[in-house]
Amino acid sequence: MAEKPQPLHVVYCGVCGLPPEYCEFGPDFEKCKPWLIQNAPDLYPDLLKEAEAKAKEADKISGQLQSTSISDGSSASKPEEVKRLPGGKVKKKEKQEIIIEKVTRNKRKCITTVKGLELFGVKLSDASKKLGKKFATGASVVKGPTEKEQIDVQGDIAYDIVDFITETWPDVPEAAIYFIEDGKKVPAV
Ligand SMILES: [Zn+2]
Hints:
CATH class of the largest domain: Alpha Beta
Distance between the termini: 117 Å
Helix content: 25-40%
Order of helices and strands: HHEEHEEHEE
Number of domains: 2
Largest sheet: 6 strands, mixed
Strand order of the largest sheet: 3-4-2-1-5-6
Strand content: 15-25%
Bound molecules: zinc ion
CATH superfamily of the largest domain: SUI1-like domain
Structural class: alpha+beta
C-alpha cells in the first residue's frame, strides 16, 4: 500500500520572505545565504561548498595570525646571534689585550713584537711610525704567525714600551698589557 503523499510543507525564506527557490532572485540573496544553508541546503548545494571554502579560508587566516603572534612572542627569547666564520666556525670575541714579546732572531737580532693595539682602535701603520720614531729604530707592520697583523720593532724596547703605549693611546689600560716571558704571559703591571 502506497503512502499518502505528505502535504507539501511550504517554507518561506526567513530573511526575504520568498519561497527559498526564489531567494537568488530576491532583494538580498547574500543575506539569505546563511538561512538557506540552514533550512534549504538541497536547493542551493553550491552555497554549502562556498560556506565551507570561506570557513577554511578564515581558519587559514586565523592560523596565520596565530603563528605570527607566536613568533612575535618568541623573538624575545631568540638565541643571541653568533658570528660565524666561513666554514661555520664560531668566532670568539677577542679579548682586548696587548701582547708584547721579545723575540731573538738569528741569535743577535732582537725584535720586540707588539700585538693587539688594533683592538683598542689604534691604527697599526700609525702606531708603527710612532714607535719607530720614539725608539729611533725600525718598526713595521707585519703579518704574524696567525696571519694577524702585529708590529715588529727592532731592538729590545720591551720595558719602555708600556709607558709609551699608555701615554700615546690613553684608551689602552696598563692592565691590558702583557709580556710573553719564557713562553708565559705575564702582566706588565
Ligand atoms: Zn531569501
